[in-house]
Amino acid sequence: MDYPAAVPPAHAGPDDLATGTDVVNTRDGQKVLQKHRSTGVTATVTIPTGQAYRSAVGWSVLTMDGTGALHVLRTVDGTPTVDTPVTGFPAGARPVLYRTGGSVSRLAIVYALDGRTSVGLVDLSDGAFRTYVTGDTATPQLAYNDRWLVADRKAIRVDAGPGTEPTALTRTDAQLEAVVGDQLLLGNPMFVTGGTEAALTARSLLTGATGTVLTSSFGGIGPTPDGGALATAGPSTWTLTLTDASA
User: Fold this and answer.
1) CA end-to-end distance (rounded Å), the chain
2) d(C-alpha 13, C-alpha 167), whole Å
3) What is the pLDDT of residues 3-53, one digit of tens each?
4) DSSP alpha helices (H): ranges in the chain?
């Protein structure tokens, strides 16, 4: 896709994680080919022997080695592949799901440990992992950006102090779609009354206030790496991009 009205950054590269919002990752065996769409800058991450690909977002690639340890791989300052071990991931935990969201500096991992399921984020800049939500749902719905993580209908600020408990949210039939700024987007409800369209709504994670973003939405809702969201609006093919107006 071309963006003729967009002005590409003066510099884009793996040493600047923020520019990864415009990066496409393509895996080819033990190599991950990265291309910045608006500048054409490319990089290649080579996955070391003994490690297996797990996920990628922006300029970062997440892998796991034979011992179960996680690694963040990236090319930095011309070095072909810099391997940063993930720290803080609980010993004995078994990853269940890797999920990208509204960020190129964090990646979510759902893991199982001692019969319980938890959700945490890897800080891709330094490999630090932190658990935020612990529950008993095998595959919890989740959405996050650089401010908030919402999982299993519990919300917590990413910068909350250690030991902070997440806030429980009222459960609805709608799915967690994305977090944009301080707004949680909810859509694709499992049930609507006859004659009612499936609306996309927003709930403030600060005040709890709710509002309708799209009165008619037919799926295709998801976070974008720059902290926004992309949503199909109605039966037509046009799309609406939601961004964080407070950023």
Assistant:
1) 25
2) 37
3) 566 666 777 899 899 999 999 999 999 999 999 998 999 999 999 999 999
4) none
